[in-house]
């Protein structure tokens, strides 16, 4: 009853779009993790007033709330049994930028690549660069305390969050920023909710005994994002990669909190200068241990980043045409793995000197390198980084039910321990019958280890907690971090007490209760989490209804597995590069992404929706705007072929509902175009411009009367081409022109 009242009141008080239908709930029930949790509903807020109303009503009715942006989270923190609030549609603005002071103020829904595109003309960028930057928005990046390939230069997101505006658990607003001692004293004398929180956190973090607990429990390695950032309130004894600001700042605590403490409405971010020039050195190795052992030696030459691309990743790249072509530009032979080593400099001469020094240093240290391929050209460098950034999705493109899934992938250790740590984890996985795949930020000691697990089998699911628990003691011994950029979420929160120790974990619980005593903000993440094996997207009980297909899906191991190739990474939500996905670029709707369509189809096949929904008119609307361009087949790292899937869906749908006149007409478009061109072209063209005829076409065929239609050609292209004079005497090259129905029979424009 409370939920019904909450949704009813929310619908009356907000201008945004409140969606409680089953399809909308399904579309927001997954992220890029292994989990699926259906929300109570989805709010697409138009204004921050809508968000504030949702929080006020959530507090009143005790309904959980989850602020969400791109849904690219890998640990399951972007799904919950809550009202999901999607900031990316409307609350995605760049509000203010100060070039001289190098900061920008943004709304949570702005995508990182779009922000950096805006900043580029000013010679600035946001420093931390997660691989999901093409679709990850700043609200999620800040909530995860994310970083990326250049973390050795720029540290963590918390280093660059200067201030933020938030909505607190009672619906009141607050602005958190750095406070000098006199400002802090004034703040703590206040009466508002933000003053209460400030007093409580100050008392919690300034007690010497508790500071000792924070120092002892915080990983020594600087690349860390798990738990709550209490280390930001301790004056000494912890390490940071970026210069540390000792002023009291609650924005640093909300950063990395995974939406569990407050709802972020604005963020003021530090900016860094764009590098003047850059170069890459692709260092080839015969084995992964040799490569990882070489990382500390490479770091002695002062690179900006060192990234691993292992043999598995290289092999998968070669299986995707888009990326196989790119590999040919910088890979020599068949190495086991490569270290992508980047340098920043002010001139090409300086960069060449840096690469030469690297080669000389590796040789002098007797590092067993098989090749070093330099990349000074900007396009070649872009190709290298493109391949690196799609590494995660490519790992997920493995066909079948065994997938390299994320759950222990986010650990980081000091680089001198990286090879030993990886060897021990790999051996443990092999001992219990699990193979592993990798991708990594080697320069920061972060190797993303992905065990291959079939979560549809109970005995395989039982391996998840075993494998997750094994590294905990190892990491504590190395001073490493359990989570270093992907957060805790459902995958790792359950082990936070063991990893951080009961004393520090108790402080985390106190932080949660200070900010959110009723646990309405993204509950059961970071603290008080359930077992990691609950709410799996594919669990032992996962089954699909049988479908007799018209097309051959044997290479995908079935129609259902072709759909399941979508892992939820959300690359189909990008808008700044390439083609995928044109319908999302036009509508900005999750439903019109490749991921959204896959989620809806999978839900109908697996029972999350009634089986009859598979061929329903509502499912048809989900699939309708797919233009079958096959961009997803080429650009999606998992090679999801939504065009083929849509063709099969339409065959199934029309078998139930019949083929409409419009579709039958367009299947005969070649024959009709042949009739309409040539001598009959004047009559056909007059007909297509006649208002009465066009209105009839709109009513009967659904072809808008406002859309101008192409004229038929009086002379078809093929006939014109055959009659033209040919002079190939001076032709340097031959070309092949494939003419389709349109180019043959319609007048060229």
Structure description:
The chain is an alpha+beta fold. It has five domains: 2-86, Uridine Diphospho-n-acetylenolpyruvylglucosamine Reductase, domain 2, CATH 3.30.43.10; 94-273, Uridine Diphospho-n-acetylenolpyruvylglucosamine Reductase, domain 3 (2-Layer Sandwich); 277-494, FAD-linked oxidases, C-terminal domain (Vanillyl-alcohol Oxidase, Chain A, domain 3), CATH 3.40.462; 554-658, no CATH class; 664-745, no CATH class. Helices cover 41% and strands 12% of the residues. It is built from 34 helices and 18 strands. The strands form five sheets. A five-stranded antiparallel beta sheet has the order 5-6-10-8-9. Strands 1-2-4-3 form a four-stranded mixed beta sheet, with helices on one face. Strand 5 and strand 6 form a beta hairpin. Helix 8 (193-206) runs antiparallel to helix 22. The radius of gyration is 28 Å and the shape is globular. It starts with a helix and ends with a helix. The model has no long low-confidence stretch (mean pLDDT 95).
């Amino acid at each position: 009853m409370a939920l019904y009242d909450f949704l009813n009141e929310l619908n009356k008080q907000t201008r945004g779009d409140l969606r409680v239908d089953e399809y909308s709930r399904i579309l927001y029930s997954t992220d890029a993790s292994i989990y699926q949790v259906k929300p109570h509903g989805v709010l697409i807020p138009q204004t921050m007033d809508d968000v504030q109303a949702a929080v006020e009503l959530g507090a009143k009715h005790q309904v959980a709330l989850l602020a969400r942006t791109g849904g690219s989270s890998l640990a399951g923190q972007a799904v919950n049994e809550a009202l999901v609030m999607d900031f990316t549609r409307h609350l995605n603005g760049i509000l203010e930028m100060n070039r001289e002071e190098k900061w920008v103020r943004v709304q949570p829904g702005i995508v990182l690549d779009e922000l950096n595109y805006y900043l580029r003309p000013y010679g600035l960028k946001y420093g931390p660069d997660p691989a999901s930057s093409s679709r990850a928005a700043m609200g999620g990046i800040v909530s995860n305390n994310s970083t990326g390939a250049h973390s050795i230069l720029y540290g963590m997101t918390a280093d660059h969050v200067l201030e933020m505006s938030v909505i607190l658990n009672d619906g009141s607003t607050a602005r958190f920023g750095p406070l000098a001692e006199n400002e802090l004293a004034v703040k703590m004398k206040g009466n508002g909710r933000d003053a209460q929180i400030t007093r409580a956190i100050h008392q919690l973090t300034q007690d010497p005994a508790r500071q000792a607990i924070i120092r002892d429990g915080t990983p020594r390695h600087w690349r860390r994002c798990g738990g709550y950032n209490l280390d930001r309130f301790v004056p000494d004894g912890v390490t940071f990669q970026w210069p540390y600001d000792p002023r009291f700042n609650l924005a640093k605590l909300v950063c990395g909190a995974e939406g569990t403490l407050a709802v972020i409405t604005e963020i003021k971010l530090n900016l860094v200068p764009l590098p003047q020039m850059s170069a890459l050195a692709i260092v080839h190795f015969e084995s992964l241990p040799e490569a990882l052992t070489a990382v500390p030696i490479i770091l002695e030459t002062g690179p900006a980043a060192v990234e691993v691309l292992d043999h598995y990743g290289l092999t998968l790249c070669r299986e995707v045409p888009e990326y196989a072509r790119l590999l040919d530009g910088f890979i020599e032979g068949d190495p086991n793995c490569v270290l992508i080593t980047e340098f920043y400099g002010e001139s090409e001469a300086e960069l060449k000197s840096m690469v030469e020094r690297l080669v000389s240093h590796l040789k002098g240290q007797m590092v067993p390198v098989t090749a070093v391929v330099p990349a000074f050209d900007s396009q070649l460098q872009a190709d290298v980084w493109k391949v690196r950034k799609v590494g995660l999705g490519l790992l997920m493109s493995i066909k079948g039910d065994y997938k390299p899934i994320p759950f222990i992938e986010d650990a980081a250790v000091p680089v001198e321990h990286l090879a030993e740590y990886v060897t021990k984890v790999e051996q443990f996985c092999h001992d219990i019958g699990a193979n592993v795949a990798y991708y990594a930020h080697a320069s920061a000691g972060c190797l993303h280890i992905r065990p291959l697990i079939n979560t549809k089998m109970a005995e395989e699911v039982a391996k998840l907690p075993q494998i997750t628990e094994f590294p905990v003691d190892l990491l504590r011994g190395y001073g490493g971090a359990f989570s270093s950029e992907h957060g805790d979420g459902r995958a790792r929160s359950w082990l936070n007490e063991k990893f951080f120790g009961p004393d520090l974990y108790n402080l985390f619980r106190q932080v949660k209760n200070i900010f959110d005593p009723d646990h309405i903000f993204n509950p059961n993440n970071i603290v008080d989490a359930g077992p990691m094996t609950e709410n799996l997207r594919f669990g032992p009980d996962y089954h699909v209804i049988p479908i007799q297909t018209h097309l051959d899906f044997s290479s995908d191991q079935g129609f259902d597995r072709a759909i399941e190739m979508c892992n939820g990474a959300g690359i189909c939500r990008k808008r700044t590069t390439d083609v995928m996905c044109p319908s999302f670029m036009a509508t900005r709707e999750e439903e019109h992404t490749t991921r959204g369509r896959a989620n809806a189809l999978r839900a109908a096949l697996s029972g999350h929706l009634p089986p009859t929904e598979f061929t329903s008119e509502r499912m048809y609307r989900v699939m309708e705007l797919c233009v079958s361009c096959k961009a997803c087949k080429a650009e999606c790292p998992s090679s999801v072929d939504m065009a083929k899937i849509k063709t099969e869906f339409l065959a199934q749908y029309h078998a139930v509902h019949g083929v409409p006149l419009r579709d039958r007409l367009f299947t005969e478009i070649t024959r009709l175009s042949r009739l309409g061109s040539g001598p009959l072209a004047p009559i056909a063209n007059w007909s297509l411009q006649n208002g009465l005829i066009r209105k009839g076409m709109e009513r009967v065929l659904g072809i808008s009367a406002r859309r101008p239609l192409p004229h038929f050609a009086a002379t078809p292209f093929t006939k014109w081409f055959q009659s033209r004079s040919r002079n190939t005497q001076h032709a340097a090259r031959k070309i092949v022109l494939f003419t389709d129905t349109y180019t043959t029979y319609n007048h060229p424009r």
